[in-house]
Design goal:
With 91 residues, the chain is an alpha+beta fold. The chain is 38% helix and 16% strand.
Length: 91
């Protein structure tokens, strides 16, 4: 997050991210929160969210989904300097 992001902006961002589960098919769950690790290995990332999909096809459909793009454009990009995306399959 950019250093000037306010608590109100962070709350609006969280609400927008969590709202994607109601708008985009194939999202099983979304969680979001701020870093609280005592290890000091967050590489500057203070906020994160996890989107769980029903399957890889749902993830692939989410990426170009208009609501996802709207959330990214209106709520994510204005507040962040950089993002880290990490997709994985559960063993």
């Amino acid at each position: 997050l950019k250093s000037e992001v306010t608590e109100a902006e962070l709350e609006t961002l969280s609400d927008a991210l969590l709202g994607m589960a109601d708008e985009i098919p194939g999202i099983a769950s979304i969680t979001a929160g701020t870093n609280n690790s005592p290890e000091g290995k967050s590489q500057g990332y203070a906020y994160g969210f996890i989107v769980r999909f029903t399957d890889e096809a749902a993830r692939d459909a989410y990426l170009p989904h208009p609501f996802h793009r709207q959330i990214a454009s209106e709520h994510i990009r204005p507040l962040v300097e950089d993002v880290l995306v990490f997709d994985y399959s559960v063993f």
